[in-house]
Structures are given as C-alpha cells and as structure tokens.
Specification:
Elements lengths: L2 H7 L2 H12 L9 H22 L3 H48 L4 H11 L3 H14 L4 H9 L5 H16 L4 H55 L1
Helix pairs in contact: 3-4, 4-5, 4-9, 5-6, 6-7, 7-8
Length: 231
C-alpha cells in the first residue's frame, strides 16, 4: 500500500499524530506512520479472516475483535513503548547531565561539552545528543537541533533540562546550577517511583497467591478426600 492510498484512508491529523508518537521512540525507529498504518490494515484483514473461518461464531466475533484490534492497536503499542523509554531515559539522564555539568565546569563551551559528554557515554540518551551534534555540524543552529530533540524525548523532566540548555545557549545564562538542581530532582523522582513499585509488591504477590497457589493448595488438601470418595 503506497503513501497516496494511506492519505486517502486516513486524515492528515491522524498521520501527524502517529508520526509524533513514532518520533518519541527515538532516532532508531525504523518505520514511519505510513509503514505502521499499512501493517495495521494488513494484520486487521488477516485477523478478521482467521477468526471468521476458525471459530464457530466467527461471523459475530470477527468484526467485533477486528474493530477493537484496529482501534486500540496504536495506543497499546506506542504508549507502552513510549512510557518504558521515558523511564529508561530518566535513569540515564542523571549520569549524562552530571557529566555534562562537569564538562562545562572544566571550561568547555556548550556545544563542545555536549559533544564530549555524548561521545564518552554509550546509552540511548547520549545517542540522541550525538544526533544534535550531527545536525549542528550539518548546518542547523544548536537551538533548532535541541528543539528537534525535544520531539524525540518522552520525558517532561529531560525536556525541561533541554529547555534550560536552550535558554542558556540563547541568553548566556549559567546552566551549571540548573543542571545540578535537575539532577537532584530526577534522583528524587526515581527514588519515589521505586518506593511506589515496592509498595505494590505485596498486593501483586497476594494476587499471584490467590490465582495460582491457593487452587493448588486446595487441590493438595482435597485431592486425597476426592480420591477416597471415588475409590
């Protein structure tokens, strides 16, 4: 299915919305909205045919399940990956921006500090900043490259830091104290998120116990009784 056909099926607003979500997956995303929509249509047709012919009530279930799959697939697929990527980037941000602050403190200008930091760290966030440096070397201003970077980062915390870096670049503000304050904020945010996850563990363990272990325990207790009754 070519791009013109996709444009006929979907509104421009829908295509732009999907492209924004795909950008949040980072520069390593290997597809665009047109590729995703084409696969979405093909898999929906395949799902409809499979349910229709493999289930006795396929003529009822096929349209319902296919519709639900078609409607909810983008959110189920993208939202989960974007949320997970945001958490990963937040973890990486503490170390990255700490090194960036030290690099600026040592006397490097902003572009040199970003280049040095991104080249000395091997993670997803540094890869995004390497793309910023590449775009600057290709002729974009640092402000333009950082604006494009914000479109690829699914973290409000990191985007606030990027905004502060842009303001420092444009107006000559001292960015070092701001970076350290943001690093402390990220660290505290991660601690609170970990505490929240830990506090949910007893509930999850209880649910697992009820669903899996309780029936097994009942079977072990009642099994001999049942065998004696039928024996």
């Amino acid at each position: 299915m070519n791009n013109n056909m996709v444009n006929l099926i979907y509104r421009e607003k829908t295509i732009n919305g999907l492209n924004k979500k795909i950008k949040l997956l980072g520069i390593n995303a290997k597809y665009n909205a047109y590729t995703f929509m084409t696969l979405r249509i093909i898999t929906s047709i395949f799902l409809f045919i499979m349910i229709l012919f493999l289930n006795d009530f396929g003529y009822i279930l096929a349209p319902i399940l296919t519709y639900l799959y078609y409607v909810f697939l983008p959110n189920l697929y993208f939202n989960t990956k974007i949320k997970k990527r945001g958490r990963v980037l937040d973890y990486q941000a503490m170390y990255f921006f700490e090194i960036l602050a030290l690099s600026i403190e040592s006397g490097n200008n902003l572009i040199k500090a970003i280049k040095t930091t991104s080249n000395s760290i091997d993670n997803e966030l540094s890869l995004e900043f390497r793309e910023v440096i590449r775009e600057v070397e290709m002729g974009k201003s640092l402000d333009e490259a950082l604006t494009l970077l914000k479109e690829r980062i699914p973290s409000d915390t990191i985007n606030n830091i990027i905004l502060n870096i842009r303001e420092s670049n444009l107006f000559g503000n001292n960015i070092i104290d701001t970076l350290y304050n943001q690093i402390d904020y990220i660290r505290e945010k991660i601690v609170l998120e970990n505490r929240a996850r830990i506090s949910k563990l007893p509930l999850k363990i209880s649910i697992i116990s009820v669903v899996f272990f309780l029936p097994l325990l009942l079977l072990l207790i009642l099994g001999p009784v049942i065998l004696n009754y039928f024996g």
